[in-house]
Amino acid sequence: MARHRYIGLVIFSLLTLGMSGCASATGTPVATETPTETPTDMYQSEILLANNELEEEFLQIALASCAQTQTKSLIVVDSGASASEATYFRPGEDLLNPENSFTDGPLGDRIANRYTEFLPRLFDPCLLEQQAAYADDPNAPLLEHSVVKVSPFRYVWSQHHGGANLESLNYDVTDGLISQYSTDDNQIFTEVGYTEFEGDVANFFIEYYGY
């Protein structure tokens, strides 16, 4: 899975055709219209997936949230109908390293490898933005997405997850960072926290992994 890639700025420009005229046989000017392309306003952003202000607004929040995990310990609490489990991450670039996370189960048991093959869905928009940096076609079906803002603090982000249809997830925002994501029916939701890697959190890793 691709990770940290630099985001480039792609700017499109359109050529404008000039008007041309011709004269009649008697020397009387006769106006001849040549079709002229009207420049199309293309949304310009350093965020490759951003096609409008709303998409940029949400993606700025998503990218800032992912960036927090570089220096802060990420905590995700996955909750279902009857139980929840908390996963703690060591800050850094490789959160998929088996020794960079551990999970406390609903009964206080440690669950190994909860997030070692895939990242929490907090990272979905960030990973799609990274894929856009490598795509030859900025309109490739793989990069299809949409954003809807349903309240001042909730966005619905949709993208593909291997299927033909877009899959949607609600993202709630607190203080400019994603603080929860959930399914439409709110039966499955995940709370998100970012904390300094010190104290009890750091000691958990020393206890569990020895460093």
Structural class: alpha+beta
Q: Count up the helices.
A: 3
- Write down the oligomeric state: single chain
Instruction: Count all strands and give the number.
Output: 11
Level of helix content? Answer: 10-25%
How would you spell out the order of helices and strands? EEHEEEEHEEEEEH
Average pLDDT reading: 82
Sheet having the most strands: 9 strands, antiparallel
DSSP strand content: 25-35%
Low-confidence stretches: 1-41
Q: How do the strands of the widest beta sheet line up side by side?
A: 6-5-4-3-11-10-9-8-7
Globally, the shape reads globular
The radius of gyration computed from the alpha-carbon positions, rounded to a whole number of angstroms, is 24 Å
- Distance, first to last CA: 26 Å
Written account of the structure:
This protein is about 20% helix and about 25% strand. The longest helix has 16 residues, at about 55-70. The chain is globular. It contains 3 helices and 11 strands, in the order ββαββββαβββββα. The protein has helices at about 55-70, 125-135, 200-210, and strands spanning about 20-25, 30, 75-80, 85-90, 100-105, 110, 145-150, 155-160, 165-175, 175-180, 190-195. The protein has a 9-stranded antiparallel β-sheet with strand order 6-5-4-3-11-10-9-8-7, with helices on both faces. Strand 10 and strand 11 (about 190-195) form a beta hairpin. By secondary structure, it is of the alpha+beta class.
